[in-house]
Every structure is written in structure tokens, then in C-alpha cells.
Amino acid sequence: MTYVRRTSTISANSPSTKFHHPNPFLDDHGHMLTQAQKDALKQLTFEHLSLQRLFTLQQQPQTITQLDDAELVEFLTIANSFYRDGQPLISDHDYDHIALAELKTRQPSHPFLHTVEPEPKFTGKTVELPARMLSTEKAYTDKELSDWLKRIHKAANEIGRDPAGLQFRITPKLDGFAAFDDGDRLYTRGDGRRGTDITRAFERGLVVANNQPRGLGAGEIVVQRSYFAANLAQDYENPRNFQASVVKEKALEPAVEQALGNQAVVFYPFSTLPYRVRRSDDLIDSVAALSRELRASLDYDMDGIVIEITDDELKTYMGATRHHHRWQIAYKQNQEKAEVKVLQVVPQTSRSGRVNPVAEVEPTRLSGALIQRATAHHYGMVRDKGIGPDAVIELTRSGEVIPKIIDVVKAVEPQIPASCPSCDTELFWDSDYLYCPNNTGCPAQISHTIEHFFRTLGNIDGFGPATIEKLYTNNIRTIDAVYGLQADQLEGMGFGPKQSENLVNELQRSRHEVIEDWRFLAAFGVFRMGGGNCERLLGHHRLEEIFELSEEQIVAIEGFAERTAEVVVKGFARIRPLFDKLQALGFNLQRTPLVSELQASGALNPIAGKLLVFTGTMTHGSRDDMKAEAKKLGAKVGASVTGKTDYLVTGDKVGASKLNAATSKGVEILTEEQYLKLIGTTISSAKEQS
Asked: Residue 177 in contact with residue 208, Cβ under 8 Å?
């Protein structure tokens, strides 16, 4: 059974900016907006969208293509919050294939896409999760799945694996509420690193699916499809709405208590899901049939399948981004093509000064949505393919609402801007890209830079696009100027007294709350210095030393290439005046421990600075968990045994090749029990000193 989310619109006579309207919002079918959604909307503070615009987007999701970047991010944030709270404003399909995909096409490096999507806040203790819970990379077409396979094969060749022999495990992608069960407590996924304790769900009667034991790690809280249809569909908008109610602190409704008592709602660990195994050569051809087969095997909602490699060593070698594991992908096919006429190519200036082209096209129905824009990727493509007014292009939606241009059927004189659409500065070419050089005077770059700073800090509210735009209009155009504002100045700019007070309090909070030094550095937006590289750099050099680093010193750090080092040194020089001003404000920075310090503490921590390789099946936890634990203790983790390896840690079912390699290279071999005893001393000593 498919559950369609009820949509709504505002009547022509209703006010567009007030929440407390006496008449219900109705859609064309007379469906009323749910009371829970109304209540939630009353709590919203809009930075950029109006209430009327929000409901237009809900009723007509295809109009999301008309949002500017700031509105799009705000809509995604609101829609995600409602979705995770069990009150989705739009369908999963429209969220994935329209809203999220639009941002991915416009700004593929936007932080919203590369961090775990935020959950609504639940009452309970927030703690660090026993293991990271990342999102999953998504593929919507056979080509995207094929590209992922090519990356898998390339990595396999690099460690001496035969790609033809690789096996892939395919499981259902459950459409539930993600959580982690460590056997003692149950946690929400949170931001992937820290979650909220919701053990009360088990105390209320939640059980593990198929009578499995507790403590099986990550999984989803789901309700039986058949039970929902027979007993809950009249009271709950959709299964997700019901699933969220299981973990909330408020007293349970009778229907929830009954479902828990009937064991119709369960925690389903990912490790116990039904699965199928395929090799590379027949994977793509069989995914559609596998999806149907797995869907038929479960009485729980699915929204695709998850594919991952089974080779643990290859998993280790490929690793993960801050958003997803590289060795795993979720697949949902969605492909339709159309030929459309281009109306114009619109330039948009990003934070970095890159000017990106978006082709506005004649409105066209594609995969059930009205398409009015298509990404042209970069102006080199516009130039070389002949994209401009009256060009005819072939599009595929492929899960992205600003669809990809897969072919140019009729080329014309390309439409390429000579000046920046934001500040009118003459543009210059760098390879296939157009750039605005006016870094310090371009309104778009300045606004996006300030937005990036506060968004990356992650510990300050209220400084969204609308606030920053108003500050810019009032000549507040640098981050240090923002921090110098007082409430009376903000009131003079048109902010209300309470809002002005809140903004000043938020600025103070962002300075006083503890924040990692690598996150603070990443907020300055130096090219190539995202959170991962900042953390890596500060593991070798203290924050106050970075401006004196040479290119050679940066290249000496694993993961930094010569070209990156050159860009980083120039970037640090550019931000130094602002950095010095902000650091003088007294931000409460948590210092990243230096690798050298961890190595020097060898008496306390015998694996600090050591290179470890894990092999075999572990009982203490998954190998990924043990690797993460080792890294926290200052160790480095490798994928294969080399002459530089210090310890080979072995579980069950160990292959002879690694044991032989370790023996021949003089690498010390530890059983899992010996390893745990080794780090147990470290952990105990650390606790005694804390």
C-alpha cells in the first residue's frame, strides 16, 4: 500500500503571514492540513520564506525550482525537520528528487549535502554515539550506479583485489526512524556523531525484530505495513508520523501502546535484514528484480535498496566522507527524458566567486514534476555545447529536479556573461569556469561568506540569509563587524527589540560555547580546507602556527598535495586579518591533539602513533567500530600489511595471506583479546587521570 501525504494550500482570502488563521487550509480535494502540522508551523521563524510561499511549495513541489539558493536551503531545513518529526510537508520522492537534488545540482559542496541531515530535538540526554551513523550516498540511474561500481573496481585494483571476484550485499532500505542500540541504551542518529538517549522506547515495549537480542547496533524503528493499514491509517497521516510518536517524551496514545503491545512496531537492526548477494557483472541488470523481491519479503515500508561490498579490507581502504561510506550506496531508479527549448541561461555567483549557469527552459513535465530549469554545470559546457536562447536540449531528471543536460539537440550562439550578475565586475576564465575577481566587494560573495561562517560554526541561530541581507543593506559586511553589533544598533536597522536582543545573545553564545578549533578554521572558507583537512592539519600544527607554515610543511602531511598546499598558504594569508580580529574576541576553542603529543604519551597509550591493521571477524564490535576507537586513541589504521605496520589485530576467520605477510615483515600479531587488553590499560589510565 502506498501512503500519499496530504497537501494543502492557502485560500485566496487568507492572510499570508499569520499563523493563527481561523479557517483550515484546504487543498483541491478538501483535505485539511493536520493539526500537528499547524501546531508545528506556529513555532516557525521564517528567515526568507513566507507562510504563503511555504504552502505553495507544499501544494506544488515543482515550484521549488523557482527558489533562490537561500530560500531553497531554508525550505530543505524546514521540510527535513517536519519529516523527521513524523509530519512530512512533501513526499519522500519530492524531497529527494526535487528539493534535495536541486541543491545538489546548484551547490554540490553545500554543507547541507555533506553532513548528516539534522533531526528534530528530542527530550533526553545528548551523548556521543558508540559508532558514527552516516547517511548513504544515493544513485538514481544505472549510470550513477555504474560510476559507483567503477570507483569500487579502481579501489580494488589499487589493493590487489580482482574486481571480477567482488561480491555485493543487497538489503532493503527501510523507511523508518534511524536509531542505534548498544545493548544498554537506544539513541537517535542525531547529527551522525551525537544523538539523544531514547531508551524509553524499549521501556515502553519496543522489541527487536524477529526476536533478535539487543545490542546489534544501527537500525530503524519501523511499523508493519499491514498493521498500519488495518489499525492506524485512520489516525496517522503515514507510518513515519506514527514511528516518531513512539520515541517522543509525551505520554503514549492508546493506539501506540496497543501497537507496541502487539509487537507491530519494532527496532530492525540493519545487520539482520534479509539480503541477496551478487557479483559485479550481473549487479546492474538485477537491481530492479532484487528490489521487487526484497520488498515482497518484508512487511515494512522500503524506499529503495542498499548495496555494499562484502570485502572488509576494501571497505577499510575506501573509508568514508563526513556524509557517507564510499563502499555503500542506496539505489532508487528514476529516469525519464525530454527534449526542451532553452529560454535563457541565468548566471549565479557563488561564495568562491565562481559564476554558475542555470538554463531556464520551457515548462516541461518530467517524472511527474514541472521542470523549468536545467543545470549547465559550468560555462565551459555552455560555450562548447552552444547553449543559449532557442537551443534544444535533451534532459534526464535522474532524481534531480534541475535535470542534467545529456545532449544538445540544436546548438545556438552560447549565452555567456561578461560581468558578474551581482556586482557587474568583469569576469575571467579559469579552465572551464568563469569567476568574479571582486572577492571583497561582490554582494553575493560577501553574503555567502558570512552565511558560510555561521553555518559552519553550527552553534549560532538567527543569522540566516534574510538577517544577513538586512545587515548588508545597513553596511555590515564583514564577520567582525557583525560581532561588534549591539542591540540598539540592530533595532536601528529595523530588527525588533526582542529579535535584536536574541541576535546579540546568539553572538555571545557562539563565542562562549566550546567549539573545535578545526571547525572554527573551516568556517573561514579557505579553498580546499573543509572540516576534514582542517582537522588533519591541526593534528600536526597548532592553530596559532598555521600562518607561518610553508608549502613544504603542508605537503609533508599525509593527504595534502603540492597544488593544494600552494592554494592553502595563499588562502591563509588572505584570511589572517579577519582571523586575528575574531580570535581576539575570545572564542572558546577546543584544541585538536597533536599527533606528536599522542605519540609522546606512549607509556599511557601504547598504540598512539602506531599503524594498525585489523582483519577477520571481530566480537568486540564491527571492524569499523574498532578502527574508529583506535583512531581516537591516536593510532593510524591501514588496509593492508606493509613493512610500516606495527600491529596486525586478528579476529576469527583470518585469511592466511595477511598472517603470512605479517610474519615475513616482522609485524607483531595480536589476537582481539590481546588487543583489547592493551587498549583496556589505556582506557583505564585515561579514566583515572580524568
From this structure: no
